[in-house]
# Entry
Amino acid sequence: MSDITEKAPDSYKSPLQEMVYEPLTKLQISFERVIKGEEISEACIEMIKNWI
# Structure
């Protein structure tokens, strides 16, 4: 796991990442993230879809 960062990834690995980070960056909403790994669970995807 990586250190905590407060900026979006340099490149997006999925449309979902772009849907999350672009609005946060554009609206200048602060956030923190860590790089966990390549896998993302279905539960996480559903949670993010419901949040957006």
Summary: The mean pLDDT is 83.
